[in-house]
Amino acid sequence: MFLRKIDERIKIIFLILLILFIFIILRVFYVQMIDYKKLNNYASDLWSRDLPIEADRGLILDRNGVVLADNLTTTSLVLIPNQIKNKKKVTNQLAEILGVSYEDMKEHVYKQTSIERVHPEGRRLSYDIAEQIAALNLDGVYLVKEAKRYYPYGNMLSHSLGYVGIDNQGLSGLELQYDKYLTGKSGAIKYFSDAKGNKLNLSDIYVEPQDGMNISLTVDINIQKSLERELDNIVDMFSPDMALAVVMDPNNGEILGMSSRPDYDPNSYQEYSQEVLSRNLPIWASYEPGSTFKIITTSAAVEEGVVDLEKDHFYDSGSVNIDGSTLRCWKAGGHGEQTFLQVLQNSCNLLVNTGTHLSL
Predict the structure, then answer these.
(1) pLDDT digits (tens, 9 = 90+) for 298-320
(2) How many CB atoms lie within 10 A of CB 299?
(3) Using CB atoms within 10 A of its CB, is residue 16 exposed (0-12), middle (13-18) or buried (19+)?
(4) 206-245 per-position pLDDT tens digit
(5) Rounded Cα gap, residues 40 and 32, in angstroms
(6) Annotated catalytic residue, options 291, 299, 317, 359
(7) Per the confidence metrics, is the pTM higher than 0.85?
(8) 359 noted as active-site residue
C-alpha cells in the first residue's frame, strides 16, 4: 500500500513537470515564431537612434511646368553628446567655425539628450562651413541633409506663393494653404547604440524620405512677367501707396497673373514688416468699382426692358439732390439732353427723367 502511494505521487509530479515543460516549449515557440516582430521592435526602439533626413518640399509650378518654388539642398549640424569624447575641444572648434560664443555652443555639446539638433546656429549651413566641420572628423558630430525653400524669381508672385519657416513649414500664401500636400515625410539614418549612447558595431539602416506633392497653378509665367513689369512702371512713374493687378481668363475664371505693390522677396522674408507680408491686395483690398459698374446697371436695365438705348432721353443738369445730399456729375453744368447710349459714352453720373433720378 505504501509503495503504491509513492508511485502515484511520482506519477502526479511527473505529469505536472511534463505539463510545465510543454507550456515552456509552447511559450518559446510563441515568442520566437509569432510574437517575434513586436518584441524585436520593442528591443530595437531601446537601442536604435535616428539621424533625421529631411524630405524635399513639393514644387510649385506654373501652368507650363515652370518652377516657381524650388528646393536647395543644404546641411545641418546634429550632435550625439554621449559619443563626443573631448567635449571642451569640440565646443571650442564648433564655436569658432560657426561664429558663436563658447557658452552658446556648450549648451548643445553638454546637453543630456540622445540627439541634439544645433538650432539655429547649425541650421542651413553654407558649403564652406559644412566642409570645415566635416574635415574635423569628430566623434558624435554629424552633418545631415536638409532642404531649403528657394524662389528663383524673387519678388514675382510673392504674396500668392507665400513663404516657409526654417523648418520648411508653410507660413503664408499657397505655401500655407497647401502645406499638408507640399510637406513630405522625413527619412532617417538609423544607427544603434547602448544605454550610454556609445555606437554599436551594427550596420546602419537608411530610411528614404518621401518628397511632398507638386502643385500646378493656372498662372502663366510670361503673363506674370508682363504684369510685374507694368506694376513696376506704375510705381516708378506715380509712387502710389499701393498698386495691384489681376489677369483672368473670362471664359473659366482662371487666374493667369496676379500681383501687387509693395511686394517682397520670400527668400528673405525676415527683412520685411508684417504689414507688407500679409497684404495680398488683389484678394484683400476693397475699393469702389466707380464708372466701370455703369456697364452692369445699364446691361440690367436693357435686359429687363426698362430703357431703350436709342429712344429714351435723359437730361443731365450737373447735379441732383437726394434726401438732402447733392450728387454731382463729373462735368460742371452737366451734359444736358442725351440718349441713354450717350449717357454711357459720356460716363454721366446722374440721370433725371420726368422727375425720377437714376444713379449710375
Answers:
(1) 888 889 988 888 888 888 888 88
(2) 10
(3) exposed
(4) 778 899 999 999 999 999 999 999 999 999 999 999 999 9
(5) 10
(6) 291
(7) no
(8) no
